[in-house]
Design goal:
The strands form 8 sheets. Strands 21, 22, 23, 24, 27, 28, 29, 30 and 31 form a 9-stranded antiparallel beta sheet that branches. This protein has a 5-stranded mixed beta sheet with strand order 3-4-11-10-7, with no helix packed on it. The protein has a 4-stranded mixed beta sheet with strand order 1-5-9-8, with no helix packed on it. The chain is an all-beta fold. A hairpin with a 6-residue loop joins strand 27 and strand 28. It folds into 3 domains: 122 residues, Immunoglobulin-like (Sandwich), CATH 2.60.40; 86 residues, Immunoglobulin-like, CATH 2.60.40.1080; 218 residues, Jelly Rolls (Sandwich). 2% of the residues lie in helices and 42% in strands. It is built from 1 helix and 31 strands. The two termini are 56 Å apart.
C-alpha cells in the first residue's frame, strides 16, 4: 500500500512563506544550497536529528524540497546504508523489507556536494500485546457442577486495543476440575479449585492465570402447575373411567382429574385389556388404555411425576371414604409417552435411562417385585427422568401392567417377575405430573 504523508519542517515553512532559511545565500551560482524532505521531523534524543517513520507493510513516497528554488539542477539521488531493510527508488519511493532503523542519504547532483541524512525508522506494523486483562466480574470465578459452561474468552481483552493478533490459548491446570476448549469455553467436571492459563499467540509471550472454583449444586425438582390442566381418556368402547367406591352415578374416585388433586388415596382407574370391572370388559387383545393431558400452553419438562395408589381418601364432596387397597397388581409398571403441540400429531418421548428390551418404555418404580398380589404402601411420588421436551399435550399409554408383564415382551431387567401374566382388573394412577430440574 502506498502512503503519502505531508509533515512540515522549518525549511518547508520558510519556503512557503517566500523566504530562504537563515544563513542560506539566496543564490550560489545556481547550485543547490539545502535539501529538505517534507516527511521528516526533528527528534531530539540528545543530538537533534531528522527522522522519517513508516510501517513495514506500507510504502512511503518522499517529497523533496530544494533550496534555493532557483537552483538550475534540482535532481537528487537517494541511497541508504541498509538495503536489507528497505529499497529506495530513484523517485524517492521507500519500499520496506523488514522493520528496523536505516539511514537515508539524499544528495544533489549538480556538483554542489550538498547532501542530507535522515534516520528512517521502519516500524513493525504487527503491534504486540503488552497486557492480558480479565474483566472484574470474571475474576476468581465460582462455577457449579452441572451449570452452564462459562465463556472465559468473552471476559478477556488485550492491551493495546490494536494488538495485531488477538488470538489466545487456554489450558486448564487441572482437568479433573474444569476443562477448557480452544474457544475459551470452560466446563465444570468436579468440585475443587484450579487455574486456567491464558497465553498470547502474537509473539509477546504474555500469560496470566485465571482462578476458578467449582462448587457443588442443589438440584431441585420444580413441578409444572397443574391448576389449568385438563385430561381425557382413550379406552375400549370410549368409557371415560372405571368408577370406584360407590356407584357410577356418584363415584368416590376413579376419575381422570383425581390424578391432579395431590392425594395418593384418589386415582384414575382404567380397566386392563382382558379385565372386568365397573361394567367394562375390554377384550384381552384390545389396545391399552391411555390418557392425554392438555396443559393449555407448551411447557418445558424433563421428568414425569408418578404416584401409586397409597393410603385412604375422603371425597370432599360427599364425605365418603375409600378404603386402602395397595396391591401392586393395580399398578402401572411401564408406559409409552408422547408429546404434541397440536393435539393430533404426537412424537415419542423416551426415558432418560432406557432399560429392558424396549428402549421406549418409561418404567415406573416399584418397592417390591413388579408382578403379584403383594401389598405395599408407596409413601411418596416418584420422579422419573425423561428426554427434555417442550409440548402442550402429553399422551400416556398404559402399556405394562400385571396382565401384560411378560418375560418375552415387556420386562424390567431388575424385576424378572413370575415369567407369566398375573391377575388384576384395573390400573390405578394416584398422581401424574411433569416438571424440570432447577440447578442452584
Amino acid at each position: 500500500m502506498k502512503k503519502i504523508i505531508y509533515l512540515s519542517v522549518l525549511a518547508v515553512i520558510m519556503l512557503v512563506s517566500g523566504c530562504d532559511p537563515q544563513g542560506f545565500e539566496p543564490d550560489n551560482d545556481g547550485k543547490v544550497t539545502s535539501i529538505a524532505v517534507k516527511e521528516a521531523v526533528y527528534v531530539s534524543t540528545g543530538t537533534p536529528s531528522m527522522q522519517i517513520s513508516f510501517k513495514d507493510n506500507e510504502e512511503l513516497q518522499l517529497n523533496v524540497v530544494i533550496l534555493p528554488q532557483s537552483a538550475k539542477n534540482q535532481k537528487v539521488t537517494f541511497t541508504n546504508k541498509h538495503p536489507e531493510l528497505m529499497t529506495v527508488t530513484e523517485t524517492g519511493l521507500l519500499k520496506p523489507k523488514a522493520f528496523g532503523t536505516d539511514t537515508l542519504i539524499v544528495s544533489a547532483t549538480d556538483g554542489s556536494g550538498v547532501s542530507t541524512r535522515f534516520i528512517v525508522n521502519i516500524v513493525d506494523h504487527m503491534v504486540k500485546a503488552t497486557a492480558i486483562n480479565i474483566a472484574a466480574a470474571a475474576q476468581n470465578k465460582q462455577l457449579k457442577i452441572g451449570g452452564a459452561p462459562f465463556d472465559l474468552a468473552a471476559n478477556v481483552t488485550l492491551a493495546p486495543a490494536d494488538t495485531w493478533n488477538k488470538a489466545l490459548s487456554y489450558a486448564s491446570n487441572d482437568e479433573a476440575i474444569v476443562t477448557v476448549d480452544a474457544a475459551g469455553i470452560v466446563t465444570t467436571v468436579s468440585v475443587g479449585s484450579t487455574t486456567v492459563t491464558i497465553r498470547t499467540t502474537d509473539g509477546s509471550n504474555l500469560s496470566v492465570n485465571w482462578n476458578v472454583s467449582v462448587l457443588d449444586v442443589t438440584r431441585t425438582p420444580v413441578d409444572i402447575d397443574r391448576t389449568s390442566w385438563t385430561v381425557t381418556t382413550q379406552t375400549h368402547n370410549g368409557y371415560g373411567y372405571a368408577w370406584d367406591g360407590n356407584t357410577k352415578e356418584s363415584p368416590v374416585t376413579g376419575l381422570p382429574e383425581h390424578m391432579f388433586d395431590g392425594q395418593s388415596g384418589s386415582y384414575l382407574s382404567l380397566v386392563k385389556p382382558g379385565g372386568n370391572a365397573a361394567g367394562q370388559q375390554p377384550p384381552a387383545d384390545s389396545e391399552a388404555p391411555s390418557f392425554i393431558v392438555d396443559m393449555k400452553t407448551a411447557q418445558e419438562f424433563e421428568y414425569i411425576k408418578w404416584a401409586h395408589r397409597s393410603g385412604a381418601y375422603t371425597n370432599p364432596d360427599n364425605g365418603k371414604a375409600v378404603s386402602t387397597n395397595n396391591y401392586n397388581y393395580l399398578r402401572v409398571y411401564g408406559i409409552y409417552l408422547y408429546g404434541s403441540n397440536d393435539g393430533t400429531n404426537f412424537t415419542a418421548i423416551t426415558p432418560a435411562e432406557p432399560a429392558g428390551n424396549d428402549a421406549n418404555i418409561v418404567w415406573i418404580p416399584q418397592k417390591v417385585s413388579y408382578v403379584g398380589g403383594v401389598t405395599s404402601v408407596e409413601d411418596k411420588p416418584y420422579i422419573i427422568p425423561i428426554t427434555p421436551s417442550t409440548y402442550r399435550y402429553v399422551k400416556v399409554i398404559l402399556t405394562v401392567q400385571s396382565r401384560t408383564y411378560d418375560v418375552d415382551k415387556y420386562q424390567h431387567p431388575d424385576y424378572p417377575g413370575k415369567g407369566e401374566p398375573s391377575s388384576g382388573n384395573t390400573m390405578q394412577i394416584a398422581e401424574f405430573g411433569l416438571g424440570k430440574i432447577v440447578i442452584e
